[in-house]
Each structure stands twice: as structure tokens, then as C-alpha cells.
Amino acid sequence: MSTTPTAELPLEQESQLVAQARAGDEAAFLRLVDPWRRPLFGYIYRMVTRAQDAEDLLQDVLVRVLESLPQFRGESRFKSWVFGIATHVCLDHLRRKKRWRVEAQLEGEQRAHADEALLEQVRSTLAQPNCVFEIREHIAACFSCVARTLDPEEQAALMLREVLGFTAQEAAKIIGISEPVFRHRLSAARATMIRSYEGLCQLINKDGACWQCRGLREFAPEANRGAELVQIEVKPGVALTPDALFDARVDIVRSADLAGGRTRPLHDLFFEGLTLHEEK
């Protein structure tokens, strides 16, 4: 999912459709829900990182939206309400899982190099006509992997505010916590992510290049290589601080189409392997 916003309906039209859907109008319900299916899947995929889990959870979300619609009173916009349902479905799922380790990706790469069959699977995936290795999408995939090391509510705070662009007030209401508690969890999530990236990704410093990103790009057939990215750069005039570098990384993550992008086949393969190894 690229996080380019899906346009919300005018409030009056949205309220009318909600009333019609609550009265049993299936067409009105579909008009409300259909524009949010893809953004919801993109959000869930970023949160849980395994495609099949994301598909299953999306269906759970849509069922809950239908069942809960009679209780929706319009106290928030429909978008915030459905993302609230999705968030709690993700939190319930993640609380049943082990948190991932920071070194999970590094160990995953080591396993791939030691297993010729797995290496061939990576090679054949990268050679598929529909697979192009885009470094920006891989940065987004890496971000989701590192975010899986967080407490689930911190992970949700990070995704809702930094990646999806909800305001702190909206995101706090979506999660169901006060705004001060939300801000504390977001700050903790950012601090943990910044620490985790130290030594993990060389794009975080001013003279490095991500060995994993570059290695995978060079591993792909030349025709299946997207644009190269030398390093993450902060905006002109901004001091080179860990927070500024993190914000520059988030800008890439926010714009990358992780769920619908051209590198999705490779990331499905990676996420599947990491899920099985980290959550066993």
C-alpha cells in the first residue's frame, strides 16, 4: 500500500450512506467500505508482515465493520472508525505472537546463504516477470520487520502517526488511549527503532549504503532492478541527527507501496520465512 490518502466522502454523504447501510442497504455498505479495502490491507500487512495473516485479518475486520455498524454513531469519521477496528484486530493478533528480534533479518540472510535451495528460491522469485527489486519498497519491508520488535501498541502508534499520517489525537482515539499516553508510546517506539537501526542498516549514516538492499538489487537480473538508492538523506538545511535520519527513512516508508508494489513477491517470501522462524 502506498500511503497516498484515499479521499474521504463529504461528511453529509458519508452520514447518509451510514444511515442507509445501518438500515440494511448492501449497496450503501459497499460504497462505504470498498474504498478502504486496499488501504486497510496495506496497513494490516505492514503490521503483521505475513500475507496470509493479513488477508485473514482483513476479512475479520470487514465482518466486524458490518456487525458493528449499528453501534457507529458518527462521533468520528468512518475512516478512523474502520482503522480503529483494524488496529484492534491487529493488536489481538500480535499479542498472541512473539516479538521479533532485532537481528532476525540478519540471521535470515545468513540462513539463505547457507541453504542453496532457499537461495535458489530467492533467485527465482527475483527473476519473475512481475517482480522488480525496488530499494524503497525494501526499506519499507525492513521498517515493518524492525517494528515487529516493538510492543504491539507502540507499533500501532508508530504506524498510525508516522506512516499513515493520522494526527496524534486521531491515533490515540483509534488505539483507545489518552493522547498523553499515545505520545509517550510513540516517543518510546521512535527511540527503540532508532537504536535498533544502529549497526543494522548503513543507510542511516552519511557515508554508508545498505549492503542488504544493494546485494539483493545486484542479485536480481538486470531487467528486474529498480532505481538505485545510495543513502538516506535528510532535507536540506536539517541537521544530521538520529531523529532527522529516522524522519527521512519514514518519508521513504510512507511513500513506498509495500503491499501492492513490484517487490511484493520477494517480501512475501521473506516475511513468510521470518514469521515461521521468529514465532515458532
Give your account of this protein's structure.
There is one protein chain. With 280 residues, this protein is an all-alpha fold. It has one domain (11-278). 65% of the residues lie in helices and 0% in strands. The protein has 13 helices and no strands. It has helices at residues 11-22, 26-48, 51-68, 78-95, 104-114, 116-126, 135-147, 152-163, 168-175, 179-197, 211-219, 242-255, 264-278. It is globular. Residues 204-209 have low confidence and may be disordered.
The largest pleated sheet is described as: none
Number of helices: 13
Distance between the termini: 28 Å
Query: Over all CA atoms, what is the radius of gyration?
Result: 20 Å
- The average pLDDT score comes to 90
Shape assignment:
globular
Find the count of extended strands (DSSP E, 2+ residues): 0
Question: What tags apply to this protein structure?
Answer:
13 helices, 280 residues
Outline the secondary-structure elements.
Blueprint: H1 11-22, H2 26-48, H3 51-68, H4 78-95, H5 104-114, H6 116-126, H7 135-147, H8 152-163, H9 168-175, H10 179-197, H11 211-219, H12 242-255, H13 264-278
Helix pairs in contact: 1-2, 2-3, 2-4, 3-4, 4-9, 5-6, 7-12, 8-9, 8-10, 9-10
Question: TL;DR?
Answer:
The protein has 280 residues and is mostly helical. The chain has 13 helices and no strands.
